[in-house]
Amino acid sequence: MSWSTSTKSILKTPFVLFTIILMLKGYLTWAVTFGDPFPWKLILTELPYIWMLFTLVEFFASKRKVSLYILIDLLITAIYFAVIMYYKYYGVIVTYHALEQVNQVTAVRNSVFSLLDPYYLFIFTDIIIFFILALRNEKFKTWRLHTAKKGRSKGTFALFILSLVVCLFNILPNRASMSEITQAQEMGILSYETYTILAKENTDWIPSSNITQESINELKGVTLPSPSAYWQKAEGKNVIILQMESFQNFLIDLKIDGHEITPNMNKLAAGSLYFPNFYQQVGQGNTSDAEFVVNTSFYIPPNGAATQVYANKHLPSLPKLLKEFGYQTATFHTNDVEFWNRRELYAALGFDKYYAQEFFEDKDVIFFGSSDEVLYEKTADKLKEMDDQEKPFYAQVISMTAHHPYTIPEDKYQMTLPERYEDTFVGDYIRSQNYADYALGQFIEELKENGVWDNSLVITYGDHLGLPLYSLDNDDEELLQEIYGHEYSYADMMNIPLIISGNGITSSRVLEQIGGQVDVMPTIANLVGASLNQQIHFGQDLLNQSYNLLPERYYLPTGSFMSDSALFLPGNGYEDGTHYPFAGEGEDSISATEAEYERALKLLHLSDSYVSQLPDRVQE
């Protein structure tokens, strides 16, 4: 047999053929997920796992050998595809925990399709071809029969053991790595996915009796002032929270070719307490996580959406706190209340009432529910009814129209985009936020006309980022460079605005200290004069603190945090982490410290421990 004939014969074996196919798919996945892949690392991580599975097929299968190879091919392809798509939005490696989100996929299918570059679909090409060949091609059937024999050789067994050892060698030294991205890159994606399934989850909780507000404040660097600035300035006032969908801070005062993008938010910020250095702290649950964090001052769970992990708990919350001071409470959202398990979340938070999709009657539907115009029109009427009662009210209003992928109907356009922004992700985002701002302006005017505005403290913030760094193409990156004047960064991505407004309560002032969504509840509590001495919380009153420490999860690797000086992203730990100074590239800035890194991790563990040990609610 000639060398060329022998080579062709080897290449026709399922073992070699499917190895080549899956390594090509692995290369695509690494290119998208890790940026600049190193072929040798791909070989050392993905290949041993693939061979470990294939040697098992060779050892035990005969008649169904090719079918099993195709099944493994399909399974690994599905994993790689899920990793690509999840990373494109969240910037993290998907794990089995995301299966809890499966029932949400159909609702967000427009967002999913918008992230899909057509060439990603080539990852399924071979499976389609094999399926067609299996039905129609006689040569394929002959090849399948020809390979239908077990490969129980010493070489097969030795290759299995070698592959297993290499996989273990990749996994075991990297178990303590803090960054999930680094873990997946060092272990290999397939080994990492297996590790997350088999690894024992950390339930070494700190006893609740050992978790005190004093210890939390010490870790955060909080010093309690006496007297407290703004204490009781909004006593007896209504409290309205406006949670703006996907609203990032760069939109404030943004002009494109002289056109003001968000004039109403600009006016609001200019006449209020405005915090430009405010950051999201949400995770898998996005908008619903923002609702959870803001109303509890706890961090999101390490895995899963807060609405699905913590909604069975008796949660200390802002609605419950304000009800002690005689407030009536309600929340408004035009989506189905079952989406992200909100019905249970609202019960756990203690809202008296929720107004969801049924209340808004599916009028003028965009994406998941009625438009912001319908939301604000009906909500304004209901808030007027609540204001006419003897009790003050707390209302959280969740906007939604400016939702990813931002392709609002043409009849909602309130501006004409410059040509260079047309048919771009950034352009669609800006146009949708321009509409959201237009609708917000109508709402504010209605509240001023019906007298609710003058009797209320109004808190406005973005729920989460709108432009994931990982989803941008070259045109989008250039447009953001034009807007920012520098390369779009992780800190820019996480930055959302916070605006505190109130007639006779606040003044026109820009406050530069950093803050996060976990700080909203303590800040409101100070303004209305509600003591949090008996309520564990992980945020701080932004009106009386200058230093802050913000642990982050999900959109950034676990162990990431923000302090006054920098955003920090860990590698295996602190030593190989990356510092992104807030002072700007090329300017002198103190890096985030290792002590801050350790304290941020302790804060996350304290929050996880405390919330996990809260008593369960009796489900009604």
TrEMBL record:
Its main location: membrane. One of its GO terms (molecular function) is metal ion binding. It is found in: Cell membrane. The chain crosses the membrane at residues 12-32, 38-61, 68-87, 119-135, 156-173. Keywords: Cell membrane, Manganese, Membrane, Metal-binding, Transmembrane, Transmembrane helix. Pathway: Cell wall biogenesis; lipoteichoic acid biosynthesis. Residues 237-529 form the Sulfatase N-terminal domain. SUPFAM superfamilies: Alkaline phosphatase-like. The active site is at T287. PANTHER family: LIPOTEICHOIC ACID SYNTHASE, PHOSPHOGLYCEROL TRANSFERASE I. Belongs to the LTA synthase family. This is Sulfatase. It comes from Paenibacillus crassostreae. The lineage of its organism: Bacteria, Bacillati, Bacillota, Bacilli, Bacillales.
